[in-house]
């Protein structure tokens, strides 16, 4: 009987807490931050969450938005589409007003339908697969470029500067990697012959078999569509099988971890990515604020910060958290971003997406002029 | 290309063979599939990277890189041998007389515990070891044999020869073979069964640890989940060679490494993992006792 009393009191305490939460809910606006926060791409998700946290903290310091405090919800999708959908459902149940995320194209595309149906605004800071904004959802935006733009710029650079006759193309079989590889191949046109095209398995430690097969085809350069852990192992093992041609790859590889994994083998790798942020005053002030709390910002930190600010500005200006109205405001207005003004086209893509080519030199990414 | 793929396959196969030995030795004596074995390999890889870090702080690689590699393998082997023996003592020995399924479930449990302990203490991201050895090696018939590959092949062959000598020629090896034939009879004849089993786990785990450190040198990345797939592939290698047979595990490991590499290069790199498991299925259908395994006789 004594036991029963204990249970009863716990139950009461829980009930009280729940009602407390319920009443608090009226005074809080929730913003989700979703990305891979555990697993081998965890750095990207954590960078994203830090940036949203920073933006939210700044808004709260200025008194929140619409007289309410802002709370950030963190959602870990482990770069796995199945997990991403459950994160989306969690955010919807918690009545989040909007979401910054997801990071991977393969997670953003399936979840966008859930957010749009739940009348939530979704802005991805890093999803570059073109399909993401072509689904006809009015509340879905991105603040980065797209893979067809990126593939075009990579292909133009390769044809103009490196002038190869034979090219090998590989990808990691994800929506992002394979999409990028295909756009690159399409943009090459008849400029060079693609002598090898194939996929690799993510997380596989050993890529020597495919690299040896590529070497046999004697290409002059090879393109990789994928993320930095795989890219690092690829260039490292390429040197070991005697394949010493440069790799060209996309924004998913733009991270110092790539150089850490590959060591000297990373030298000379070409990467397409946004313009150098360090030179811009707007970006510099973000970098300083970010460094104080979290250390060195990641490649997409600044995009996530811009995305969170756009959402909160739109909520403030429209005076509501109604997704349809907020989305409408975002679509029609121009926002100050770290790389200059951000405005969106009818699909929800940024009107200006500046990709440039970078190269690894002495362990650092240097813009190719 | 053929020679290069052969060398890649042999290096990968040597790693599988070292892990497979642990599976096969334990199965030979206890008829238990030690599913925690892949995790011991993962622990070995982590220990290798930690010891290498400590040695770097101590300044050893500046004097001699090979000495640093030697020490990190030795220390990792010693630690993991203790881990393996402790797993046997606490997770399997209390269940030795229980139903056959109980130790198997216990093994799966140990595997999950080890994975999560490492995840919580070391983090979920990849740990990197920058390339220590140069990537340009020596040319053999037009293929590049990198120093790491040469090291993995020679070191694993030395370890296998030592193991073979130990099992075939020493008193303890004889006791081990007797125990695997009939545990109760061996006990009646004065063999300390518990000691023999502990030593089996010590040896098997230290070989897995050596494989772990070698893989770290080879690929430069360790991850808390790496033991899962490597463990299953090594198990496949053990079944292919004939589980319970020591030469079988060696042969199975080398064969599996080559099948994977040739499959990935000549057929499709996307299905690299699928080839390993295709081999497992075909072996189980056509020759369940494996290439070098003996048909299991029901002991009456």
Description:
The complex is a heterodimer of chains A (369) and B (300). Helix content of chain A is 46%, strand content 19%. Chain A is built from twelve helices and 14 strands. In chain A, the strands form three sheets. Chain A has a seven-stranded mixed β-sheet. Chain A has a five-stranded parallel β-sheet with strand order 2-1-3-4-5, sandwiched between helices. In chain A, helix 4 (105-117) links the parallel strand 3 and strand 4 (121-124). In chain A, helix 2 runs parallel beside helix 11, helix 8 packs parallel to helix 9 and helix 11 (301-318) crosses helix 12. Chain A starts with a helix and ends with a strand. Chain B contains twelve helices and four strands; from the N terminus they run αααααβββααααβααα. The N and C termini of chain B lie far apart (53 Å). The mean pLDDT of chain B is 91. The A-B interface holds A 38-40, 42-43, 173, 198-201, 203-210, 212-213, 215-216, 229, 232-233, 236-237, 239-242, 257, 260-265 and B 1, 4-5, 8, 12, 124-126, 128, 130-131, 135-137, 143-144, 146, 148-149, 215, 219-221, 223, 225-226, 260-266, 268-270, 272-273.
């Amino acid at each position: 009987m004594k036991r029963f009393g204990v249970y009863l009191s716990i139950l009461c305490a829980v009930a009280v807490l729940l009602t407390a939460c319920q009443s608090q809910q009226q005074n809080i606006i929730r913003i989700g931050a979703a990305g891979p926060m555990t697993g081998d791409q965890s750095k990207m998700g954590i960078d994203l969450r830090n940036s949203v946290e920073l933006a939210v903290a700044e808004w709260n310091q200025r008194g929140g938005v619409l007289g309410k405090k802002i709370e950030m919800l963190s959602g870990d999708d482990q770069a796995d589409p199945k997990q991403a959908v459950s994160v989306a459902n969690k955010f919807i149940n918690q009545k989040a007003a909007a979401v910054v995320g997801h990071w991977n194209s393969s997670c953003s595309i399936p979840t966008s339908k859930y957010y749009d149906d739940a009348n939530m605004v979704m802005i991805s800071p890093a999803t570059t697969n073109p399909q993401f904004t072509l689904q006809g959802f009015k509340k879905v935006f991105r603040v980065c470029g797209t893979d067809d733009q990126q593939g075009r710029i990579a292909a133009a650079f390769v044809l103009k500067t490196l002038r190869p006759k034979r090219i090998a193309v590989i990808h990691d079989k994800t929506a992002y990697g394979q999409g990028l590889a295909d756009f690159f191949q399409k943009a090459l046109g008849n400029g060079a012959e693609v002598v090898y095209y194939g996929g690799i398995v993510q997380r596989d430690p050993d890529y020597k078999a495919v690299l040896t097969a590529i070497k046999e085809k004697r290409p002059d350069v090879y393109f990789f569509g994928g993320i930095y852990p795989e890219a690092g192992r690829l260039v490292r093992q390429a040197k070991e099988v005697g394949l010493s041609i440069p790799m060209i790859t996309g924004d998913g590889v733009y991270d110092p971890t790539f150089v850490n994994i590959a060591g000297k083998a990373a030298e000379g790798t070409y990467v397409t990515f946004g313009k150098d942020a360090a030179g811009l005053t707007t970006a510099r002030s973000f970098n300083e604020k970010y460094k104080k709390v979290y250390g060195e910002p990641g490649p997409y930190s600044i995009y996530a910060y811009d995305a969170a600010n756009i959402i909160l500005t739109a909520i403030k200006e429209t005076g509501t958290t109604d997704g349809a109205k907020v989305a409408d405001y975002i679509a029609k207005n121009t926002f100050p971003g770290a790389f200059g003004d951000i405005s969106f086209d009818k699909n929800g893509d940024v009107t200006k997406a500046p990709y440039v080519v970078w190269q690894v030199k002495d362990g650092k990414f240097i813009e190719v002029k | 290309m053929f020679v290069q793929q052969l060398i890649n396959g042999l290096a990968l196969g040597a790693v599988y063979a070292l892990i497979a030995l642990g599976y096969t030795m334990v199965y030979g004596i206890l008829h238990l599939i030690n599913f925690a074995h892949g995790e011991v390999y993962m622990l070995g890889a982590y220990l290798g990277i930690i010891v290498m870090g400590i040695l770097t702080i101590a300044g050893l690689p500046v004097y001699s890189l090979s000495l640093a590699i030697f020490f990190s393998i030795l220390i990792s082997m010693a630690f993991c041998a203790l881990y393996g023996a402790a797993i046997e003592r606490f997770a399997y020995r209390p269940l030795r007389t229980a139903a056959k399924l109980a130790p198997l479930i216990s093994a799966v449990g140990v595997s999950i515990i080890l994975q999560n302990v490492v995840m919580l203490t070391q983090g979920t991201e990849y740990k990197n070891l920058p390339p220590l050895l140069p990537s340009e090696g020596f040319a053999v018939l037009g293929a590049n044999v990198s120093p790491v590959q040469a090291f993995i092949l020679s070191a694993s062959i030395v370890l296998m020869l030592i193991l073979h000598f130990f099992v075939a020629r020493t008193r303890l090896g004889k006791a081990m073979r007797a125990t695997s034939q009939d545990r109760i009879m061996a006990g009646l004849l004065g063999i300390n069964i518990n000691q023999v089993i502990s030593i089996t786990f010590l040896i098997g785990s230290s070989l897995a640890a050596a494989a772990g450190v070698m893989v770290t040198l080879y690929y430069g990345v360790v991850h808390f989940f790496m033991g899962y797939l490597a463990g299953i592939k090594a198990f496949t290698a053990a079944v292919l060679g004939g589980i319970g047979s020591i030469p079988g595990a060696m042969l199975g490991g080398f064969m599996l490494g080559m099948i994977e590499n040739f499959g990935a290069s000549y057929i499709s790199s996307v299905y690299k993992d699928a080839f390993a498991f295709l081999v497992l299925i075909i072996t189980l259908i056509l020759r369940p006792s494996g290439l070098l395994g003996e048909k299991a006789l029901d002991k009456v």
